[in-house]
Write a structure and sequence with these properties.
The chain has about 600 residues and is mainly α. The protein has helices spanning about 5-20, 45-55, 80-90, 100-115, 125-155, 185-205, 225-235, 245-260, 270-285, 300-305, 325-330, 345-350, 380-385, 450-465, 480-490, 500-505, 505-520, 530-535, 575-580, and strands spanning about 75, 155-160, 160-165, 315-325, 345, 385, 390, 395-400, 425, 440-450, 545-550, 550-560. It is found in: Cell outer membrane.
């Protein structure tokens, strides 16, 4: 969220004072629910500050790098939690992917906020105060839906042949509350998500922008003036939860529910998921509105430097605050550029990028040359992955990752060297300099939702519902979406993309293509770990790399993946199962 300076300061203060109390008994003098005198009547600081605490708990996929626990990446950081679970140490009491504590803490804060909103005089102007209350209530419902979605993604699963969700908590849990609640069904959780999102949309504007005149004020806000509208819903609040964001989260939740791992426990269909995604895409402007520079959203320097407070680039639907730093580069630049080379893309992922003509490298028509494996490939390959001979850093330094290379960038040379023959390039600003004599920072931001994700959500769901070229009641098909995404990437431009044209006659072939495009477009943004599970696909493909000696590449196995079949669903935390007899664990855990 990009908010005004005072809001950020308040968030920091609330986070330091409140979030550190998550796992211990709250002290009476610091707990508003236990000590009503802690704040003055009508004091807006309390509910708004608690709401900001919930905002601060939104997970950011892009920086988690749980890709390390998939076939897309490994890490040279031997203490990495995702490395440990990928190699057989994932248990109910060792789960770096758990959302139980974080999301339930956020939901507690949100429930507290809901209980306080109508008690507060938000401004001295009564009509504007009601609008503020309406807006903040809408934000709170929307965020509660979001955190319930995160809980389902991480903890829903099969127990005694029933697909269960998580306990639904709609009230403030004080010290005397009954915490021993059973898990709701997956369907009940989905209905709660949809209900909260419906309420959010009823109360929120589509976006926070100052309006031209009162004539465009939605009727749901009543007879108010432009000044009143702008005070409650204007551009000053960009970055907070909106009606557009609610629609996007509905798309994400529905896609999860319709997927093979969860479809048996819900009434949500592929058609529902497609229609929810289409609603967002239509607001964006349709297929043609796919951002032309969306593949490089993280490094579009002039676009990023020119961002107004809270404004989004064309690729981004919702983002976090931006900041000037070099943390990602410090962790992931190769050693010769003073980085730690932490995230190493795999040969598995490299092989998933097609040739520039659109054919997979295994297709006889592709023209793939194993002796020159990076030539004539999908341009996204070298954008996202630093291959042997590729360039990186502010001086476009050539990087030698070969096993017989002479620098520390070489395969397995030192602790910070690549383990796969590749380094990460995506997400990194190549204009960051880590040289201690001339180091600099650059602006970065973390997206919560990218539009490309929503376009891909539609493609997947529409193909399953109506086939590659079907559109239901919408004006575009899965084929239309994938054609636009591949064209933007620079794939199939010279030959009309015959591989895509052949795929549009087969739902099964289009499914393979859509899943692969999702893998490429969203790589290193924290999606594949969950995608493999909701698709019920193989989790145990070993991570592979390449060893280049005397210019000749040879495939190598880098790391086994040790997941059991039941691990398509994550566990309920072991400590919670011990404490609360009503909780059922997912099968296998």
């Amino acid at each position: 969220m990009n908010m005004k300076r005072s809001m950020i300061i308040l968030l920091a203060a609330v986070f330091m004072l409140a979030s550190c109390k998550d796992l211990i008994k709250p002290e009476i003098e610091n707990n508003r629910e236990l000590n009503p005198d802690a704040y003055l009547p009508n004091d807006a600081r309390f509910p708004f500050g608690i709401l900001l605490n919930a905002y601060n708990r939104i997970p950011t996929n892009s920086w988690s790098f749980n890709d390390v626990a998939t076939d897309d990446a490994v890490t040279n950081d031997q203490s990495n939690g995702y490395l440990k679970i990928a190699t057989g140490q994932w248990t109910a009491n060792n789960n770096p992917l758990s959302q139980w504590t974080n999301s339930y803490a956020a939901i507690q804060y949100l429930n507290i906020t809901l209980g306080e909103i109508d008690k507060v005089q938000w401004t001295t102007d009564e009509r504007v105060s009601k609008l503020f209350a309406m807006r903040i209530k809408g934000e709170t419902y929307g965020l509660r839906a979001l955190f319930l979605y995160y809980l389902l993604q991480a903890h829903a699963g099969m127990s005694n042949s029933t697909l269960l969700g998580v306990p639904i908590v709609l009230d403030v849990q004080g010290t005397n509350a009954n915490f021993n609640n059973p898990r709701a069904t997956f369907e009940e959780c989905m209905k709660q998500i949809y209900s909260d999102l419906d309420k959010a949309e009823e109360m929120l504007p589509l976006d926070y922008e100052n309006i031209a005149s009162a004539a465009v004020i939605p009727t749901k806000f009543g007879s108010i003036t432009k000044v009143e509208y702008d005070r409650a819903f204007g551009s000053a609040f960009r970055g907070l939860f909106t009606g557009r964001i609610a629609k996007a989260i509905r798309s994400k939740a529905a896609l999860l529910a319709a997927s093979p791992a969860f479809a048996s426990g819900t009434s949500t269909t592929w058609a529902d998921a497609a229609n929810y995604a289409a609603a967002v895409i239509n607001l964006k402007g349709g297929v043609s509105a796919l951002a032309a520079n969306g593949t490089t959203w993280y490094s579009n320097a002039s676009e990023i430097s020119g961002l107004a407070d809270g404004a989004n680039p064309g690729e981004i639907l919702w983002r976090g605050n931006y900041g000037d730093n070099r943390d990602l580069e410090q962790s992931n630049y190769p050693p010769s550029l003073f980085g730690s080379g932490r995230i190493n893309p795999t040969q598995n992922l490299v092989d998933a990028f097609p040739m520039a003509n659109g054919y997979p490298i295994a297709d006889a028509a592709s023209g793939y040359d194993a002796a020159n494996p990076y030539n004539n490939r999908d341009p996204r390959l070298k954008q996202y992955i630093l291959v042997n001979g590729g360039t990186a850093g502010p001086n476009s330094t050539a990087i030698n990752t070969a096993a017989d290379g002479t620098t520390n960038d070489a395969l397995g040379k030192v602790e910070t060297s690549t383990r796969t023959g590749y380094y990460l390039r995506k997400l990194l600003r190549q204009d960051v300099n880590l040289n201690p004599t001339s180091a600099n920072n650059q602006r970065h931001y973390k997206p919560h939702i990218r539009y490309t994700e929503i376009y891909l959500n539609y493609a997947e769901a529409a193909n399953e519902a109506w086939g590659p070229t079907g559109a239901g009641a919408n004006s575009f098909s899965a084929y239309d979406i994938i054609k636009a995404i591949r064209k933007r990437a620079g794939v199939g431009l010279s030959n009309g993309d015959p591989y895509l044209e052949a795929a549009k006659s087969s739902k099964e072939q289009m499914r393979i293509l859509i899943k692969n495009e999702r893998r490429l477009e969203l790589c290193f943004e924290g999606y594949r770990f969950w995608d493999l599970r909701r698709w019920k696909e193989n989790l145990t493909d070993a991570a592979r790399g390449v060893s280049i000696k005397n210019g000749q590449p040879t495939g190598i196995k880098v790391e086994d993946r040790q997941f059991q079949p039941y691990m398509i669903y994550g566990p309920i935390p072991y400590g919670e199962i011990l404490k609360f007899g009503e909780l059922q664990q997912n099968q296998g855990w």
